[in-house]
Amino acid sequence: MASISKVTPVSISTPAPDAEHSLSGLYAGEAITAGDACYIKSSDGKVWRSSGTATGAAAVVCGYAAGDCPAGEPLSLYYGVRFRYGAGLTPGTLVYLDTNAGGLSDTATTGGVNPIGYVVDATRIELVRSF
Predict the structure, then answer these.
(1) First to last CA, the chain
(2) How many structural domains compose the chain?
(3) What range defines the domain where residue 49 resides?
(4) Averaged pLDDT for residues 5-23
(5) What is the pLDDT of residues 78-114, one digit of tens each?
(6) 25: CB partners within 8 A, 6+ apart
(7) How far is CA 114 from CA 31, 95, 97, 109, 118, in A?
């Protein structure tokens, strides 16, 4: 399974997302890194890193963090936007949820069977929700 590496800093390469493509007023349940795929846990309403290790709530992707965020701090999630990732990506590649929490992969995983993104060019990925 190949992981798509993030490079620091990861940034949104599209203009600032509108309200239809962002979720705000959220708090991190754990430390979140820029570019992490995330879900909102129903038991506490906080943001956690999504994981494709198994099916279930953690395999859902509600959005992506635009910046680093420590546990307990406020953050917003974005979707339907382009993020800048590392150089050397293969345009046209579909992107899936990785088994590493918050990560992306170019291979489907047990919990990440549906694509959540598309590599636009060597540095940018168009990212969407998993639902």
Answers:
(1) 23
(2) 1
(3) 3-127
(4) 69
(5) 999 999 887 889 999 999 999 999 999 999 999 999 9
(6) 74, 76
(7) 26, 9, 8, 9, 12
